[in-house]
Write a structure and sequence with these properties.
Layout lengths: L4 E6 L15 E6 L5 H17 L5 E9 L5 E13 H11 L3 H8 L9 E3 L15 E3 L15 E5 H7 L11 E6 L4 E2 L11 E2 H13 L5 H6 L21 E2 L13 E3 L7 E2 L9 E2 L27 E3 L8 H9 L21 E9 L9
Parallel strand pairs: 2-3, 3-8, 5-12, 9-10, 15-16
Antiparallel strand pairs: 1-2, 4-7, 4-8, 4-16, 5-6, 11-13, 13-14
Helix pairs in contact: 1-5, 2-3
Length: 369
């Protein structure tokens, strides 16, 4: 019989150039039986790093395991999701706003009970069923708009809902499960860099925890329903908080405007912005299909943007960046220290939906869902 082990991680006092004390996240970590002692220790280190950077007074309950994953997949995350009204999410973000980015991002969210988006590949697309041609879905009626449900619904991880105050902060149920591959050599000691041919386990854990905390949008759900018969716009209730800050030059252009997000599945460049799309801060991946080949709930690959990049190179020390923190800030988390726009934070010594991270090397680029 497998032994079930649990570890509780809580960083209560963190200093960032001052004596200011801050309460951090509490992580309850349960080994489902497959994770090695080294994995448990490394995962606890990663959890402690997130606790030192985000000071929301919530408890996040995570199960971890080591299993055989598809070739090229290092880890994946299955998180529990719940749906909330757009207006309740906007109000929660408004009530939670403390930083400059918070205030700017909320000010540029559409007011009222619905938000507009650029969308494609719906079964009722006015350009033809499942057409790749995008159109504006305002939630106010018109061609290609069967209803406003998708414009008035935001779906998020339970951990993210806890941070927003929409779900009990210390609810004891599981917030999700993170699996790690058993076929990769990991480096568990970051103090002397990452050995060639090995993958930074703590960095991988940082990435997967990031997904469970809420860096998870709905573009992949649109993609998975893009073949016949598909779904109408009002059936695609998968927009996540991070999608509210996903824009393109066309979504804020003619027919759209500031605050209109780009929720399309295609290769058009999409970017993260905290001022309604006026300023691009970082590029998003554009999707596992129709886009750049990487799941859309990541930063653009090979740009070195942060821990939420879709791939890890053997020998690479993975770090949480300034842009990572700015993204978590605007989706409802509170930062222990507000990052400077050009700074980089190097951490350490240094229902169910899934996400996965891939391995890449100079010789081979492999992966899969």
């Amino acid at each position: 019989m497998n032994r079930i082990a649990r570890v509780t991680i809580s960083l209560l006092v963190v200093v960032f150039g001052s004596s200011r004390a801050s309460a951090g996240l509490i992580f309850n970590i349960t080994n489902q039986g497959g994770a090695s002692p080294q994995m448990m220790t490394g995962f606890s280190q990663a959890a402690g790093m997130w606790s030192s950077l985000l000071n929301d007074s919530i408890t996040v309950n995570i199960r971890i395991n080591a299993v055989a994953l598809s070739p090229g997949i290092l880890g994946n995350t299955s998180a529990f999701f719940d749906a909330y009204t757009y207006s309740s999410v906007r109000n929660a973000l408004l009530n939670d706003a403390t930083s400059t980015d918070d205030l700017s991002s909320v000010a540029n969210l559409p007011s009222g009970s619905v938000h507009s988006m650029l969308i494609n590949r719906t079964s009722n697309n006015p350009n033809g069923a499942l057409s790749a041609t995008p159109y504006f879905d305002t939630g106010l009626g018109g061609a290609g708009q069967a209803g406003s449900q998708n414009n008035s619904t935001i779906r998020m991880t339970s951990a993210n809902a806890k941070a927003m105050g929409l779900y009990p902060a210390n609810a004891s149920g599981s917030d999700g499960t993170i699996n790690f591959t058993t076929s990769q050599a990991f480096d568990f000691d970051r103090s002397n860099g990452i050995s060639a041919g090995q993958v930074d386990f703590v960095g991988l854990a940082l990435h997967e925890i990031g997904h469970l905390l809420g860096f998870r949008g709905g573009i992949e759900n649109l993609i998975s329903n893009s073949t016949s018969p598909g779904l109408q716009d009002n059936q695609l209730l998968f927009l996540g908080p991070i999608d509210l800050f996903r824009f393109s030059t066309r979504s804020i252009g003619t027919g759209g405007g500031l605050g209109v997000n780009d929720w399309t599945a295609d290769s058009t460049a999409k970017y993260f912005s905290v001022d309604g799309g006026a300023t691009s801060l970082a590029a998003f991946s554009t999707g596992s299909q129709y886009g750049d080949g990487f799941e859309a709930h990541h930063w653009k690959n090979n740009l070195g943007l942060g821990v939420m990049d879709p791939t890890i190179v053997s020998g690479e020390l993975v770090s949480i960046s300034n842009i990572d923190l700015r993204a978590f800030d605007v989706i409802g988390y509170n930062l222990t220290a507000v990052p400077e726009p050009s700074s980089l934070v190097l951490v350490g010594i240094a229902g169910l939906m899934g996400t996965a991270i891939r391995r890449r090397s100079a010789a081979n680029k492999i992966g899969g869902k």
